[in-house]
Amino acid sequence: MALDTHREELAATATALARPGSGLLAADESTGTIGKRFAAIGVENSEEHRRAYRTLLATAPGLGEWISGVILYEETLFQDAADGGSILDLFKAQGLVPGIKVDQGLEPLAGGLPGETWCTGLKGLQERAARYYARGARFAKWRAVLRITADDCPSELAVRENAWGLARYARTVQEEGLVPIVEPEILMDGDHDIETTAAVQEWVLRLVYEALAINGVFLEGSLLKPSMTLPGAECLQRPTPEQAAEFTLRTLQRCVPAAVPAILFLSGGLSEEEASVYLNAIHQAVGVAPWHLGFSYGRALQQSCLKHWAGHDVVSGQQALLARARANGQSARGVYVAGSEPSDGKSLFEANYSY
Ligand code: 13P
To answer: Which domains are seen in the chain, by residue range?
Structure first.
């Protein structure tokens, strides 16, 4: 089996990504999503601007101290940097392992409840994975999305379909030497309480790991990217960081096999500072964990960077990025002092978020 020839490399890649005190920079916004980010700072969504912005990320001095890997969008994986060479090589020169988003977005789930989706991208995936590996990518990401609503979402159909899709994807990319990031995101939309999220997330994770087992996914060469266990954004009872940490750890300890090297949280609409403070609280609560607990943040690493850059100020954008990278690197060791790094206070929550 092709997977057998890759086991050692997959485990080594996953371990490199799970480096203590580090996490991932999710810079794999699709062209449409980065367009929304650029619109907010008055920058036109052209290939030149995307190149300039992602070159800024790749050349932020010292980024590799806190960031072990970067998730790229296909365009960036094959794109030249602003002054020649490839953006990929700039990230690699900083010691970051490059990865690639391989899902092709969400579609309405026939037979599901209103608003439910399934994640597309399996057709031709193995060939694409081989091409991405040849270019230098060493891991992949697939984002499946579930929502919690008062009218019974997620349905069993949605949970099973999304778990199965994640498992088919994970097995397929492992055959080509890419470590799969398994991302079953539970959206923060809604007013449900934290106990409800915990119950749904346990159900989802149990079915995800069952599907991974049926598909023979090599867990030591895989990573989990979950949301933290939090109440819906409109729930009036807000948890303290300590309560959020307690629920998140309980959920993960009940469901995630110890063979998985790392759990890298998504930020999911938390503000930059919240994302750091919550991860820090998880570390302070955990004692000894079987997995590395880190981050794979998109919005919570890039929000102030984008604002400071505003299409022209590279140095200021890089300083903002490095500040949040440092904060999260410290959180990933449980030593972050809240407020000790600058951040954008804005809530990054967007209803019905698509990536
Ligand atoms: P956020 O941290 O902005 O939620 O995004 C991370 C990500 O990669 C979602 O797939």
So the answer is: 2-331 (3.20.20.70)
